[in-house]
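PROTEIN DESIGN WORKSHEET
SECTION A - STRUCTURE
LENGTH: 218
TOKENS:
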């Protein structure tokens, strides 16, 4: 079995009981909780803000991985840092001053992550890679759970892992969107470190088993 980090995405959980949902992540053996923040502008949907994350903090000991699918992420990072986020990931497409933003997340004592949508080339991250702790590769177009993975995105993971090695860098690589037992295996083969899964986790009756299978166990 692999030692991939599993990050269930609460986007697929029952929003009337998110406290229970994050507690279930702890009980399942998954290490991270993935929290999708949508602003109705960068993506069409709207989910939740920093107050929800702050209220959820006491319900789980897992690492809180906040994925800002928002415009103007620089206006939001302080509030999510205060709320108890551990990783704060912004989209390169939503940010001109990515370097300044990554440094300001570090200055808040948090780990900066950068994400890219399927149509953004990996070259857009070339200059920011030394300044982040996480690269979140979107393997679907962001905004909705339950979509099928776009297989071409896996090649980005492979190339990113090669670039990391070649440049001697030290960030985690996450895959987000359409991760299930089958696609998880392909992503693991491509050297992914973090598997983000919404439907494959919250849609499973046995969540411990779902985590085990995402790691490649029986
Ligand atoms: C999609 C979100 C994902 C989403 C994944 O825009 O960023 O985190 O929750 O959902 P699944 O695993 O159902 O594709
Ligand atoms: Zn996400």
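SECTION B - SEQUENCE
RESIDUE ASSIGNMENT:
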């Amino acid at each position: 079995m692999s030692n991939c980090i599993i990050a269930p995405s609460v986007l697929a959980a029952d929003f009337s009981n998110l406290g229970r949902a994050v507690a279930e992540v702890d009980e399942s053996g998954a290490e991270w909780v993935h929290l999708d923040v949508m602003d109705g502008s960068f993506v069409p949907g709207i989910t939740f803000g920093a107050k929800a994350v702050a209220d959820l903090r006491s319900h789980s000991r897992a690492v809180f991985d906040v994925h800002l699918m928002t415009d103007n992420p620089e206006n939001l990072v302080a509030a999510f840092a205060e709320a108890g986020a551990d990783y704060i990931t912004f989209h390169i497409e939503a940010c001109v001053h990515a370097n300044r933003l990554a440094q300001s997340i570090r200055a808040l004592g948090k780990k900066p992550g950068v994400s890219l949508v399927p149509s953004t080339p990996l070259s857009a991250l070339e200059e920011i890679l030394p300044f982040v702790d996480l690269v979140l590769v979107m393997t679907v177009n962001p905004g909705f759970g339950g979509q099928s993975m776009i297989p071409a995105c896996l090649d980005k993971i492979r190339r990113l892992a090669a670039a990391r090695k070649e440049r001697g860098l030290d960030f985690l690589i996450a895959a987000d969107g359409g991760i299930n037992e089958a696609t998880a295996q392909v992503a693991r083969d491509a050297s992914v470190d973090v598997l983000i899964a919404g439907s494959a986790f919250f849609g499973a009756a046995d969540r411990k088993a779902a985590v085990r299978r995402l790691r490649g166990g029986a």
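SECTION C - NOTES
The mean pLDDT is 98.
The domain at 5-215 is CATH 3.20.20.70 (TIM Barrel).
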